[in-house]
Design brief:
It is globular, with a radius of gyration of 19 Å. It has a single domain (about 5-235), classed as Rossmann fold, CATH 3.40.50. The protein has helices spanning about 10-25, 35-45, 60-70, 95-125, 135-140, 145-165, 185-190, 195-200, 210-220; strands at about 5, 25-30, 50-55, 75-80, 125-130, 170-175, 235. Strand 2 (about 25-30), helix 2 (about 35-45) and strand 3 (about 50-55) form a beta-alpha-beta unit. Helices cover about 45% and strands about 15% of the residues. The chain is of the alpha/beta class. The chain has 9 helices and 7 strands, in the order βαβαβαβαβααβαααβ. Helix 1 crosses helix 9, helix 3 (about 60-70) runs parallel beside helix 4 and helix 4 runs parallel beside helix 6.
Length: about 260
């Protein structure tokens, strides 16, 4: 049985990822700051007959991360899902707000990835990591410059360490979800039904994603089925990032 850490694992996409990984006979370690939510998520997984433990900590705390990783009975990989986000015009964004988002997403990814890699390398064992980014990590997006900067950093980090750690059998990939209407995402992004309609118009598959679909992508990349995949990004966004020219079909008259 492998032990896989999932940061931001108490709710939303992270919780679904943890459930999916545990369903593959892995033990999952849920990491988060909200103790009550962690306990609720743990109870849910255990009631489903799955192996789970929790670790209440802040991913920005490098010492706490190091202590956790060094003291688990075993570690085989990590899914870096913890993130902070809100919408704001960049000119209205405070340095503290920018810093908080970057530190949770990018610094947290660095803290867990390096701690896990050090242990795996010291033990001479292979492993897998998956970083949850977004499609605007490479396209950018207005209103979330802070998050785009953090996720863009995660994308570059993913590719960089995939090259460094490959010789040790450590694979590092990323999943880039499109919009998934979790409680947090809906609160911060969908301000009205009209906003939802505008977003749907830009998605070729004409619907939002589901947490289960993101979890399936992560489970694949963390599994032996992806044993020859590293440094890659799996985009799960219904075609949204293809751009408008790919889903605004010309009329029949325009084609004749």
């Amino acid at each position: 049985m492998k032990t896989l850490i999932v940061t931001g694992g108490s709710a939303g996409i992270g919780r679904q990822i943890a459930h999916r990984l545990a369903s593959d006979d892995n033990e999952v370690v849920l990491v988060g700051r909200n103790t009550d939510r962690l306990k609720e998520a743990e109870t849910s997984l255990v009631n489903d007959g799955l192996n789970c433990r929790t670790a209440p900590l802040d991913v920005r705390d490098a010492d706490a991360v190091k202590h956790l990783v060094e003291n688990l009975p075993r570690v085989d990989g990590v899914v870096n899902n913890a993130a902070g986000n809100f919408t704001a015009r960049t000119i209205d964004l405070s340095l503290n707000g920018f810093r908080a988002v970057v530190e949770i997403s990018l610094y947290g990814t660095f803290n867990f990835s390096t701690a896990v890699a050090r242990r795996l390398i010291a033990e001479g064992r292979p492993g897998a990591m998956c970083n949850i980014i977004t499609t605007y990590a490479w396209t950018g997006a207005p209103g979330v410059a802070h998050s785009a900067a953090a996720k863009g950093g995660m994308l570059a980090f993913t590719k960089s360490v995939a090259g460094e750690w490959g010789e040790h059998g450590i694979r590092v990939n990323a999943v880039a979800p499109g919009f998934v209407p979790t409680e947090s995402a809906t609160t911060h992004i969908l301000s009205s039904p009209a906003a939802a309609d505008r977003m749907l118009e830009r998605i070729p598959l004409a619907r939002f994603g589901r947490t289960e679909e993101i979890a399936e992508a992560v489970a694949f990349l963390m599994s032996e089925q992806a044993a020859y995949i590293t440094g890659s990004v799996l985009t799960v966004d219904g075609g949204r990032s293809l751009g408008p020219s790919m889903h605004e079909m010309p009329s029949k008259q325009d084609l004749t």
